[in-house]
Amino acid sequence: MIARETIGATSDSDQLLHLQLPYPYSMLRHDTDVMLVGEIRDFEAAELAIRCALTGHLVFSTLHTNDAPGAAPRLLDIGIEPYLLASSVQAIIAQRLVRIICPNCAEQYTPEPEALAEVGASDNALSPAAFRRGAGCDSCRNTGYLGRTAIYEMMVMNDEIRQLIMDRAPGTTLKRAALANGMQTLRANGLEKACRGATTIDEVLRVTQDDRDAINLGP
Ligand SMILES: [Zn+2]
Fold first, then answer.
1. pLDDT score at 11
2. Which of 21, 43, 70, 76 sits 20 to 30 Å CA-CA off 199?
């Protein structure tokens, strides 16, 4: 829900008018360089975040989607015009949390070939000996995990992706363009962390979706 507040009211009529103004107007009047809009759930919040961005502010916000490229169709879906989106967004970062392997009971192991193939490890000629898992101990209540860390993917805007957004391209098309532009997917980033022994392949598979469709499908 958008919080509302009175802004610069000098009379009763002003107050009635200003009570209808959502909070980013108040933020704009403060003339900050950087703004954080807690979460974009609806058209009103999205439009105002973009309006703030277009008037020279660096705006950070959050949005619930499956991956970074999915944020663009999501914002279009809630009513943002493509030209506004294409001209205001600089980058979209997706994040998932994965559990960290318990340091007290971590052990090396060789994952099943099927799991390696599913996470994309076989495509990268990785050494299976690099992988670890938690055997379970008192410290981790026999779960094999202790704490969590984040895995990321970041889609950086370029002319091609801006044009795709103008054309209302689906998320899979945006994802292919972002991959061609060097984006590392959530799953690939998770695999990298699994290779360093930070988390397990099972965790990465649990919180990420299959990249192969987007990578293998033609334009
Ligand atoms: Zn443990």
1. 44
2. 70
- For residue 35, the CA-to-ligand 1 centroid distance in Å is 41
CA of 132 to the centre of ligand 1 (A): 12
Per-residue three-class SS string for 88-99: HCCEEEEEEEEE
Answer left, alpha or beta for residue 67, where phi above 0 means left and psi between -120 and 50 means alpha.
beta
199 Cα–ligand 1 center, Å: 13
Question: Measured on CA atoms in the order 52, 37, 90, 46, is the torsion positive or negative?
Answer: negative
Report the alpha-carbon distance of residue 71 to residue 111 in Å, rounded.
33
Contact call for residues 121 and 191 (beta carbons, < 8 A)? yes
pTM recorded for the entire structure: 0.78
- Are the CB atoms for 100 and 145 separated by under 8 Å? yes
Q: Does pLDDT of 22 surpass 50? A: yes
User: Is a pLDDT exceeding 80 seen at residue 109?
Assistant: yes
Inter-residue contact 136 to 99 (CB < 8 Å): no
Q: How far is the CA of 210 from the centre of ligand 1 (A)?
A: 29
- Residue range 152-176, pLDDT digits in tens: 999 999 999 999 999 999 999 999 9
